[in-house]
Amino acid sequence: MTAVSVRSLTKKYGAFPALNNLSFTLEEGNVVGLLGENGCGKTTLLKVLAGVLLRYDGDVEIAGYHPGPESKATVSFLPDESFLADGDRISRCADMYGDFFADFNRAKFDDMLQFFMLEPEMKLSQLSKGMREKAQIALAMSRDAKVFLLDEPISGVDPAARDVILRAIVRNLEPDSLVVISTHLISDIEPVLDRVLMMRYGQVLLEGTVDDLREEHGKSMDQLFKEVYQWSAN
Amino acid sequence: MEFNSSAPIWLQLVDECSRRIVTGEWPAGSKMPGVRELGVELGVNPNTMQRALAELDRTGVTIPDRTIGRYVTEDTARIDELRESVAADSADDYIHRARGLGMSLAAAQKLLTNRWHHTEGD
Which of A31, A24, A32, A33 is nearest to A4 (CA)? Predict the structure, then answer.
């Protein structure tokens, strides 16, 4: 089943097109890597899909809805900036998530906290960057959502924490949900992906399943990405 | 698990599972971990893991069973066959290098025999 369908999506900031006539579809049951350098439009695209940016041209459908209140009820978005109050304890954040989202699954959340070795009583201000990222991932991934949009979930953390975070994501996958992960750390994330969507200048440069692309080109996604970036520069 | 950059990941997972079977880490007739469990352990997507396991099923090395889960074949002859095919890649590698160095088959075999005893107990 199609989980995301984007047709001729354009989003301009002033005269600058952050997304330039973008079209693609994503199926449920997949983990998709949204890859590209800073400024290529990854975050803007995720914000449109999440229903945070509502003014755009083109047609977007996610989990069967145009981005809006109905889609937000079943799309879990993890922004790339911190959205939690420093003074709060982890348990308080979970309470809020439970109030905001009917699909928040507290049992799943507690299980993920354990996996991350975090305590509910911990205050966010006491957490390291990696621990805080883990707490945010645990919140976002503990909704029984149809689509998960994770913006740069592993960028600011050390390799060991990255590994744990990616394992946690794999561990929590539901067969009929779609997970979209944006990142520029391609080699770290490649093994957990089904598909990649490589972006530049607000457009899709290349997309496909990781193993088909590996088979076809004999290259890892990291190497392929560098190559694609080179020819797209000319 | 570290993956090399050229081959598809699912094929590298087939190799890893094959290694576990021929070394007895997963003994003949034993029940194997589930797709998700393996995916988490190896840090890969469950669809990719499933594709690798389906390939092992297809070649008769493992048997999927709806009630008890997937298990390793009890056919030890099949496992011996698998061991040979896993080892064949390394053998090809050695042959290729030995040839490149201008060795004859007899010389390469002799060297192999010598080293075999030399490395015993390693």
Answer: A24
B5/A223 CB distance under 8 A: yes
Tokens 């779609």 sit at which residue? A178
Q: Is the pLDDT of residue A69 over 70?
A: yes
Q: Are strands A178-183 and A147-151 parallel, antiparallel or unpaired?
A: parallel
How close, in Å, is residue A156 to chain B by CA atoms?
Answer: 19
Q: Which CATH number fits domain B9-76: 3.40.50.20, 2.60.40.380, 2.60.120.10, 1.10.10.10?
A: 1.10.10.10
pTM of model > 0.90: no
Domains of chain A in sequence order: 2-233 (3.40.50.300)
Q: Do A194 and B45 touch (CB under 8 A)?
A: yes
Mean pLDDT of A59-74: 96
Per-residue pLDDT of B95-113, as tens digits, reads: 999 999 999 999 999 999 9
Percent above pLDDT 70 for chain A: 99
Residue A76 CB coordination number (10 Å) = 24
